Amino acid sequence: MPDFTRNYETFIAAPVHDVFEYCRDPRHLFAGWPELEVTDVVMTPKGVGTKAHIVGRFFKGMMVEQIEREFTEFVLDERIVTKAHAKVRFAGRNKEVANGPIFTWLFEDRDGGTELTLVVLEEDLSRWQNLLESVSAALMAKKLNGVLAAVKAGVEIPAPSTA
């Protein structure tokens, strides 16, 4: 079965370490996606094992996702990898999502700022899922670019004026 990968990137006018530290908190990683609500976060000192419970409400609440996203790889100032375990309720039926998307956040120094790249990997998709991903790519691009814009806005908050 095929895999489906998408990359999204933005430049943030802040040092890599500042952007990385901001992204340690899963609440910041999903702030730009209005349909998602991060309800519970358990952060670990070393990053790996950090968990977030996320509730996604789509199609005016007709579809509800319960997502557990966990940091599975954490390399200081370089990358954060998160895996999702999800259950979806749609039209009164519950379904376990076998392979939730893997999000890899990559942090790279560029001229004193940060090139932040989000790589979304969905593994072992059936033909039907692959077709659905292809059709929904434009909508997902809007949502995931919104996520990056929120991280950028959160890190680039101007310092208060001292005048």
Describe the structure.
The chain is of the alpha+beta class and 163 residues long. The protein has one domain: 2-Layer Sandwich (Alpha-D-Glucose-1,6-Bisphosphate, Chain A, domain 4). The chain contains three helices and eight strands. The protein has helices spanning 16-23, 26-29, 127-155, and strands spanning 4-12, 36-42, 51-58, 63-75, 79-90, 93-97, 102-110, 113-122. Strands 1, 2, 3, 4, 5, 6, 7 and 8 form an eight-stranded antiparallel beta sheet that branches. The N and C termini lie far apart (61 Å). The mean pLDDT is 87.
Key features?
alpha+beta, Alpha-D-Glucose-1,6-Bisphosphate, Chain A, domain 4, eight-stranded antiparallel β-sheet, 3 helices, globular
Tell me the number of structural domains.
Answer: 1
Taking the sheet with the most strands, its summary is: 8 strands, antiparallel
Would you tell me the overall average pLDDT?
87
Q: What's the β-strand tally? A: 8
Quick synopsis:
With 163 residues, the chain is of the alpha+beta class. Helix content is 25%, strand content 45%.
Task: Describe the protein's topology.
Elements: E1 4-12, H1 16-23, H2 26-29, E2 36-42, E3 51-58, E4 63-75, E5 79-90, E6 93-97, E7 102-110, E8 113-122, H3 127-155
Antiparallel strand pairs: 1-8, 2-3, 3-4, 4-5, 5-6, 5-7, 7-8
Helix pairs in contact: 1-3
